[in-house]
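tokens incoming
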């Protein structure tokens, strides 16, 4: 080969090497860009994981609160039902007699009722009437606030 042919071959090889170098620089830039984006995505994922963990803890807390509220609701329903039942039972055996003059029963209200009820009703009670308890109500006072009738 002649000098000019060798020079031409050498120039072509150098151009090819230069072109490969430019392509490698482009690949290095692309690789650096991909590495930066991958790092950014990893940071975003770590942030999302942290947020998801926090949300899971909050959901667990809310679920526990809801379960507790449901238990309390059930207990309130039970207690409300029990209170209504007890109020009904306490009223069941009560009788209120209106129209008697003040202090007519004297010192023994049980004896008064045992004598007065058969006379008023015309019924003879055998065995005689028994009372678990009897209370005398005082006169109605207009200066005292009264509760609404719950019967």
């Amino acid at each position: 080969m002649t000098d000019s042919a060798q020079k031409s071959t050498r120039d072509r090889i150098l151009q090819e090497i230069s072109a490969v170098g430019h392509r490698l620089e482009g690949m290095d830039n692309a690789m650096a860009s991909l590495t930066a984006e991958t790092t950014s995505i990893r940071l975003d994922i770590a942030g999302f994981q942290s947020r998801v963990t926090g949300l899971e803890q909050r959901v667990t807390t809310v679920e526990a609160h809801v379960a507790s509220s449901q238990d309390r609701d059930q207990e309130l329903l039970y207690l409300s039902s029990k209170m209504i039942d007890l109020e009904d039972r306490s009223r069941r055996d009560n009788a209120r007699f209106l129209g008697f003059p003040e202090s007519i029963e004297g010192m023994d209200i049980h004896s008064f009722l045992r004598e007065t009820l058969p006379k008023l009703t015309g019924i003879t009670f055998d065995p005689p009437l028994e009372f678990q308890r009897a209370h005398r109500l005082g006169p109605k006072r207009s200066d005292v606030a009264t509760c609404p009738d719950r019967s």
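note: Residues 94 and 143 are 26 Å apart (CA to CA).
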